[in-house]
Amino acid sequence: MWGGLADQSYPEQKVAVEYDVGTHAHPDQVPRDVRRAEDCARAGWKEVRIMKDHMANDATEAVRKIRNALNDRGWRPSLRRPADL
């Protein structure tokens, strides 16, 4: 399963989330990241890349990006409430 290699994954929707920190800008890391993204696409997964600035304001932008990717893959949030509420 390709998603097992991601920082976070949603196997049912085949969405892989990668959090890129400063080390991803290193010249040796860039080609590995490109190959990883290509492998992800070949395996039928959608990769969502989250950068530090996406985490501002309670990670609003990161959540939006991930939710959009999940929605694109057919996910819909449950409207059910927990039984104990």
Brief summary of the model shown:
This protein is an alpha+beta fold. The protein contains two helices and three strands.
Q: What can you tell me about this protein's structure?
A:
Helices cover about 35% and strands about 20% of the residues. It is an alpha+beta fold and about 80 residues long. The protein has one domain. It has a three-stranded mixed sheet, with helices on both faces. The N and C termini lie far apart (about 35 Å).
String of helices and strands:
EEHEH
**Radius of gyration, taken over Cα atoms and rounded to an integer in Å:** 15 Å
Number of helices: 2
What characteristic shape results from the CA principal axes?
flat
Oligomer: single chain
Helical content band: 25-40%
The number of domains: 1
Q: How do the strands line up in the largest sheet?
A: 1-2-3
The major pleated sheet works out as: 3 strands, mixed
Uncertain stretches = none
Residue-averaged pLDDT: 87
Give the strand content. Answer: 15-25%
